[in-house]
Amino acid sequence: xxxxxxxxxxxxxxxxxxxxxxxxxxxxxxxxxxxxxxxxxxxxxxxxxxxxxxxxxxxxxxxxxxxxxxxxxxxxxxxxxxxxxxxxxxxxxxxxxxxxxxxxxxxxxxxxxxxxxxxxxxxxxxxxxxxxxxxxxxxxxxxxxxxxxxxxxxxxxxxxxxxxxxxxxxxxxxxxxxxxxxxxxxxxxxxxxxx
Length: 195
Prior knowledge:
By secondary structure, the chain is of the alpha+beta class. It has a domain at 39-168: Beta-Lactamase (2-Layer Sandwich). The chain has 6 helices and 5 strands. It has helices at 2-8, 16-25, 39-56, 82-102, 141-168, 175-189; strands at residues 60-65, 70-74, 110-114, 118-125, 129-136. The longest helix is centred in the C-terminal third of the chain and has 28 residues, at 141-168. The protein is globular, with a radius of gyration of 21 Å.
């Protein structure tokens, strides 16, 4: 995201406020870069997720990005609360990464949350995505871990292909966007005496 926003700000006529905006944009997490999920990528993710849910006998599962945006959800559960679950799962995973940093670990790849009725198992897919399964007492945790690990390898392949396709897509540079961005920054940050 930082690169996309930085490209909006033209180096011509940069004032102190524009420099401040550019420096603030540089603080976004580089692992939260956006990958375009086209139809082919979504279909590939869906195949892997459905197989994982079927083999593990989970009730539901999802693939989400590290910001908590659900890419694919499969299963009937939590229809009205999926967005909140995605954000909370990603937030919980992010907090475990911070715990790992404090403990001077390279990172924790998995997260298990156990309740009285249901469990949620989450595993990282590279540095971009998470795969998360919701399952009940009837499902063996060891089976979920093994199957989820296999699925993350398949999903990693899907992610790599999506990033390669995105890298080879032509990028359009819109000169008008630079002008609009500069004008907007000028309007936002101009002195009250100029208004």
